[in-house]
Design brief:
heterodimer, A: alpha/beta, Rossmann fold, Dihydrodipicolinate Reductase, domain 2, 2 domains, 7-stranded mixed sheet, 6-stranded mixed sheet, B: alpha+beta, Alpha-Beta Plaits, 4-stranded antiparallel sheet, 29% helix, 40% strand
Chain lengths: 330, 156
């Protein structure tokens, strides 16, 4: 299978490292696996015979790779290499999902399977993209879009095939969870905790995307559509952030056995808001961890916990890639 | 649905079992039975039976059956189970303003934080029947939205 990676930032680099490390595992599933193209915002590297993974990794940035085409676009690369699988990893744009949305649409229309970690396109056009994938008989997998490394969609798809999910609660944004955790344990104010999160590189370029609840709202939309079959758009989510949470509020909650967490609720309605969470509730995880609490008709309550961002997210992308490889090798 | 039925039963053996039969037949699950036998020598004994029914219509069928068999039913009332609920409100308001805003709600306890910042924080324990909880939260949400307060609901 010929594979192209669109987006070579933090996740792209870590994915390439993992592909090199797990080369044997991948080749055992698909002996014809080749990475034929990688693009970033300034150009692309392309080789129909397959790029040397180590060569790209050792080049010290894609732009410095000897075969790099400066000024070439990702769409040009896709047209040039017609990959069987496109891994779309460009940064999330919650306003209109671009450029990821166009990359994914283009890939599906040319008959390529798509694996993505980009939540923007899914939050904006979940049903449209799925219809496109179905029309062209290809797979669209997006495990890494919600709760990073937590294998949520695969878990529901493979392990809860007869269940009907009736409600989902999620701590889906690591940055706000870090801020609220620091406020809970260190009894510092919101501004001090936000400053710390910024210093540690945990916030988006525009921190209001995290603290205003918009990042979590995008993920809630994907969960509502993908797991509960709803037809929900971002505008349907009642979204409130954590900007108004004070150190006193956290202290008051703590005295009664609660903590305050930014929780996405997917039930009859979809909502993101700071909520009171009992400290002994399975949803209550700290630091940058994410958690998802599911209620289903057969299994009852289930909770999944894991890293919602960072290089661990590569695990979800790799699993999606291998799922596509296995599916197409049958 | 939970109902309390109070009977005046003749003080003779087998009377209680007789009135329990139609309740059981209609799928009623007996929660408690209270006999008031303090007044020794009375011909009739007041007995209260609390039972849970899967459907509200079934209680009418039970009452019809009891009437047909001549049982004297003194009182029938629905029993509402109470739920307690903790919420928090953060907003720029004085303590007396918070008291006023929450006045019409079933508040059982209120705790107000010291105001080191402009934003005051109130923890409110509410009591409501299970069926009223949703309505109560909706009213709280409307009140908070209209005053620009942040409402922190529990994950129920």
């Amino acid at each position: 299978m010929d594979v192209a990676i669109v987006g070579y930032g933090f996740l792209g680099r870590n994915l390439l490292t993992s592909v090199a490390e797990k080369w044997g595992t991948i080749k055992a599933v698909d002996p014809h696996f080749r990475l034929v193209g990688v693009s970033n915002s300034t150009g692309y590297a392309f080789s129909p015979e397959g790029l040397p993974l180590q060569g790209v990794l050792d080049s010290g940035g894609l732009d410095h790779y000897s075969g790099f085409t400066l000024g070439g676009t990702s769409l040009e690369l896709l047209d040039k290499c017609s990959p069987d699988l496109v891994v779309e990893l460009t940064p999330t744009n919650i306003v209109d999902g671009e450029p990821g949305l166009t990359h994914i649409q283009h890939s599906l229309r040319m008959g390529s399977h798509v694996v993505t970690a980009n939540k923007g396109p899914l939050a904006h056009a979940y049903w449209e993209l799925n219809a496109e994938a179905q029309k062209h008989g290809v797979m669209l997998l997006y495990e890494a879009t919600v709760a990073g490394a937590v294998p949520l969609f695969s878990f529901v798809r493979e392990c809860l095939q007869a269940d009907r999910i009736t409600r989902m609660l999620g701590i889906l944004n690591g940055t706000t969870n870090y801020i609220l955790t620091r406020m809970h344990f260190e009894e510092i104010g919101f501004e001090a905790a936000l400053k710390e999160a910024k210093e540690r590189g945990l916030t988006e370029r525009d921190p209001s995307i995290d603290i205003g609840g918009h990042d979590a709202a995008c993920k809630a939309v994907i969960l509502a559509n993908a797991i509960m079959g709803k037809r929900v758009k971002l505008r349907d989510v009642k979204t409130r952030g954590i900007e108004t949470i004070t150190a006193e509020a956290i202290r008051l909650a703590k005295r009664s056995g609660y903590t305050i967490k930014l929780v996405a609720t997917v039930a009859d309605t979809v909502e993101v808001a700071p909520r009171l969470v009992p400290v002994n509730h399975p949803l209550c995880v700290h630091g940058t961890l994410n958690s998802v609490y599911l209620e289903s008709d057969l299994a009852g309550e289930l909770t999944l916990v894991g890293h919602g961002a960072g290089k661990q997210t590569v695990s979800a992308i790799m699993n999606d890639i291998i799922t596509v490889l296995k599916h197409t090798s049958h | 649905m939970r109902y309390s039925l109070t009977f005046a039963l003749p003080d003779t053996p087998g009377q209680l079992l007789r009135v329990l039969e139609p309740i059981a037949k209609m799928g009623g699950n007996i929660v408690s039975i209270i006999h008031d036998r303090d007044r020794v020598g009375d011909v009739y004994v007041p007995v209260s039976v609390v039972a849970e029914f899967p459907d509200t219509l079934l209680i009418s069928a039970v009452l019809d059956e009891l009437r047909k068999m001549g049982a004297e039913v003194l009182e029938v009332k629905e029993v509402f189970r109470k739920s307690s609920l903790t919420v928090m409100i953060i907003g720029d308001a004085s303590i007396s303003e918070f008291f006023d805003y929450l006045d019409t709600l079933s508040v059982s306890r209120m705790e107000v934080s010291g105001s080191s910042s402009k934003q005051r924080c109130v923890k409110v324990d509410l009591e409501a029947s299970e069926r009223e909880v949703g309505n109560l939260l909706k009213r709280l949400e409307e009140m908070c939205d209209s005053h620009g307060f942040t409402l922190l609901k529990p994950i129920l």
